[in-house]
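Usage example:
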Amino acid sequence: EIVLTQSPGTLSLSPGERATLSCRASQSVSSSYLAWYQQKPGQAPRLLIYGASSRATGIPDRFSGSGSGTDFTLTISRLEPEDFAVYYCQQYGSSPPATFGGGTKVEIK
Amino acid sequence: QVQLVESGGGVVQPGGSLRLSCATSGFTFTNYGMHWVRQAPGKGLEWVAFIRYDGSNEYYADSVKGRFTISRDNSKNTLYLQMNSLRAEDTAVYYCAKDQMATTTTFFDCWGQGTLVTVSS
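Running the assembly step on the lines above writes:
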């Protein structure tokens, strides 16, 4: 089973700053089958990025994903007030079919 | 627009059973695989089960294998999760989620609002 480790656990930043979130896999993620989700309190997760770097429909271009193999990054170029949330990475294409990282909370500094 | 609406959650005693439903609309249900994903209070996300577009194959997390059964009724555009032999550690919000593929597990492009299952005596 591929284990995903997200860091940092919490990121304290101000609106307008750049956020860099890391997701590291215990073994190579095939074909960059990695997705990122945003979850706000009391809400369901929302798909942001799939295939490591493709933005989902309606996602602003301040969100970008990169990486391959075992190291992946979600970058938010300039934080908006609505971006403060918890972010999860997820791998697919291996067994078990889907696993999530533990999450990174982006909070207002 | 795409809508996924879960129902059937509640409080159940350890060892008991519960059946969750997920009514869908706004997309061609018969073209996509579907999942259940859960989130324990204050914790992260855990994938639970997947069913192919036609119901021909199912996959389960080890933590629920043999106790939970995922199914679908394509005539009703509805997904189900039958949960038996429930344990305290099954307490979570259960989300149904749509895959963007029909036969393999990829990512979850639409989610329901979730239904809370509490296993407690």
